[in-house]
Design goal:
globular; Formate dehydrogenase/DMSO reductase fold; mainly alpha
Length: 447
Amino acid sequence: MHRDVAEKLAKLPPDEQVLLRPLVDTSRWFYVGAAVCGAITLWGIIAYVLQVRYGLGRTGLNRPEYWGIYIICFVFFIGISHAGTLISAILRISKAEWRRSITRSAELITVLVIGFGAIQPVIDLGRPDRVLNVLFHAQPLSPLLWDVVSIGLYFFSCTIYLYLPLLPDLAVIRDSGIKAPRLYRFLAAGYRDTPAQRLQLERAIGVLSIIVIPIAVSVHTVIGWIFAMTLRPMWHSTIFGPYFVMGAIYSGIAAILVAMAVLRRVYRLEGYFKEVHFDYLGRLLLIFSLLWFYFTFAEYLTAFYGGEPGEMRTFWAKLTGRFAVPFWAMVAGCFVIPLALMSRQATRTPVGTSIAGIAVVIGMWLERYNIVVPTSVNPRWEIEGVGHYLPSWIELSIMAATFSGFILLYMIATKFVPIVSIWEIKEGRASVQEVAERVAHYSERVA
């Protein structure tokens, strides 16, 4: 950090000093991590170039499995994107004061991960130059078109939902002069944080908080319909819409917990990502682990009770056949581990919730695998000599590049915007009296 930047930073209030320091003070390990992620991403780009040049024959995709890892990652990443919309928006609307430290990190996850999720179907195409045919030759009755429209609207609304709450912090960076004055003068868009501007900003954020919730729900509902509106075994089910929405929120909570634990350790934000935040999010994780089990049990119970031959081949392939390992690993990651850890106060700590979050993230990826692959290789009609899927190094490289690319962009984002909302922290501390009065009002009504 240059001396003049350090002097400007020292003149700021304590909260701003702590939360703006990562923007101007970069450790050697940050560059090491960025270099590793960049190398993995570059390797994945090379693999994709080879796939485009030589065709999908370089992948493990085959008849009748045409989706594989790419569509698994598509559903997975779009699910994680619910971290910053449903969770952040619902907490804002409900005026949960403990949300103030976590909303920014969640909203950043949303905007970045949508792009990596949306690009997966393009990667899955043998001719990516024809992707716009979805719009040029649109079929209004196609769930694929619904998906394109809903994800596009979702990305647009979430970007605005991220940008508006950033304005006061961008103005602070602009006025402090600690980094790229011209850039932050442009990004702050003339915002001066006057009482009138703050009132308009909070109204706009309140309206967006309401708007993004049904958009987020519609996105993963439509993704569920892409599966459910086909006649494939264990896909053609009315439960898939709410099942996918619930799973998206579940994986989003887990992703927030993992991100918070890493940011807390790397940037020393123990004073902002407190144990109470991990405790509350751990409770949410516990609730959704039970919801996940309920939906999963309902899905498999109805398939088993019906006893349709095509359904049963897929059913037993998951429970006792060649997909038993990923199936039971999914159950362990999505239910057993989070239930065991989050049901006890002693393990709802930053470490315990991080372990549970990692288990859920892995388990939810496996859930998508167990939805896509077993059904694809077990169609209603039996085909001789096919019905297997083994991803090639091309697919694994591109998947690794997708994850590393997201991590790299998230790391870079922490160098341009505060990962904790400065103005919301200040507002929260100033509103302690208001919260106390609200709690007293609730107590009076109970009495």
